[in-house]
Design brief:
The chain has helices at residues 14-17, 66-81, 90-98, 160-165, 196-206; strands at residues 2-6, 22-26, 37-40, 85-88, 102-104, 106-107, 114-118, 123-126, 133-135, 142-147, 155-156, 171-176, 181-184. The chain is α/β, with parallel strands linked by helices. The strands form three sheets. The chain has a nine-stranded mixed beta sheet with strand order 2-1-3-4-13-12-10-7-8, sandwiched between helices. A hairpin with a 4-residue loop joins strand 12 (171-176) and strand 13 (181-184). It is globular, with a radius of gyration of 16 Å.
Length: 209
């Protein structure tokens, strides 16, 4: 099995989770084959044009960045090949867009790590740190974990209909089955490979492999 790491040679903690896997840095869609999974890492905001919205709080330029284009093409190629995808922070938000969703372009209260609650009822610490948020309306998804309690009172970029849909659940871990992606808003690479959050994420992602 190969860990296709978008733009980066490093793959911690995935190399600890899957010690027999080969880590391969990928930049172009043709770098992907059918053996392994793609991981798209955190970083700057994705361009709102990827989810068909004007700029309303996103920290981006006028056009999609070279990284936007590269990672979007990698994700589309992985989807076409049926490869599992692990999206981390920015990668999770891009996965939401690829699954047909949008982003809340600016939220408050998520500038540091915090507690989350899982669908099983467990509460644990995550390293999540972001100012944008996945908005799951119009996507097929399974909500796996969310902020506990709600942290934000600012939700920039939603229209009135979308504001009425938003019910205060701030997603942190989401499965998008139609694109075979686990979207993780937090940063597993910032924590010990065997901490509760990382063990939980690994256990959920294992089911996609």
């Amino acid at each position: 099995m190969k860990i296709y790491s978008a733009l980066y040679n490093d793959a911690f903690p995935l190399d600890i989770w899957y010690p027999q896997a080969e880590v391969v840095c990928v930049i172009k869609p043709e770098d992907l084959t059918t053996s392994g999974f793609l991981v798209v890492w955190g970083g700057e905001d994705i361009h709102p044009s990827l989810y068909r919205r004007p700029i309303m709080g996103a920290h981006v330029g006028k056009e999609p960045s070279r990284r936007d284009v590269s990672e979007w093409n990698l994700m589309q190629r992985a989807i076409s090949l049926g490869l599992p995808i692990l999206g981390i922070c920015r990668g999770a938000q891009m996965a939401c867009a690829a699954a047909g969703g949008i982003l809340i372009q600016d939220v408050s209260g998520h500038g540091s790590g915090h507690a989350i609650k899982t669908v099983e009822g467990d509460i644990m610490f995550t390293s999540s740190m972001h100012h944008q948020m996945m908005f799951l309306k119009d996507t097929k998804h399974t909500l796996v974990a969310w902020s506990h309690p709600q942290r934000s009172d600012v939700f920039t970029g939603l229209n009135k209909e979308e504001e009425s849909y938003f019910d205060g659940i701030e997603p942190e871990v989401v499965l998008f089955p139609t694109i075979k992606c686990l979207a993780v808003q937090g940063h597993p690479e910032w924590l010990d490979a065997k901490c509760p959050f990382n063990q939980y994420v690994q256990s959920v992602f294992d089911k996609l492999l």
